[in-house]
Amino acid sequence: MGDSDGSIPGSTDSRTQSDDSDDRSESVRVVVVDGETETELTVDRGRVLRDVLLEAGVSPYSRLTERANCGGRGLCATCGVRLVDAVEPDHWHDELAERFGYPRLSCQVVVDQELRVELVEKLVWGSRRSN
User: Fold this and answer.
1) Are strands 37-44 and 47-48 parallel, antiparallel or unpaired?
2) What was the pLDDT predicted at 122?
3) Residue 89's pLDDT is what?
4) pLDDT in tens, 13-53
5) Are 114 and 85 in contact (CB under 8 A)?
6) Residue 66 lies in a domain
7) Which of 9, 14, 49, 58: disulfide with 106, CB 3.0–4.6 Å?
8) Could you give the angle at the alpha carbon of 56 between the alpha carbons of 54 and 57, nearest 5°?
């Protein structure tokens, strides 16, 4: 028998509370819109959107804030993106963004559902593209 507990992977009738992590490892689709370009990513549930974007080479930052940012702690508001899909805000900044319609912080969004994300220009922090 070894390490196996005899259950069929992915079956729902023999699940225990400790098996909840299996749901978190499911992959979901994230579509990133950058101007006219769309990039489709396959993302493990539970990942932070900012990290996913950076790993995929589609940075939410401007050229200036690429290096001058808070490192994903939700303090500088430079990693803002528009979420086309409804995602409940968990962070004070994102609650205000939801209320007033400005970009959400990608460092505070946990990917737990399929998303469509639009990268936005940062007027205060400079353009995302070189001129």
Assistant:
1) unpaired
2) 61
3) 65
4) 333 333 444 444 599 999 999 989 999 999 999 999 999 99
5) yes
6) yes
7) 49
8) 65
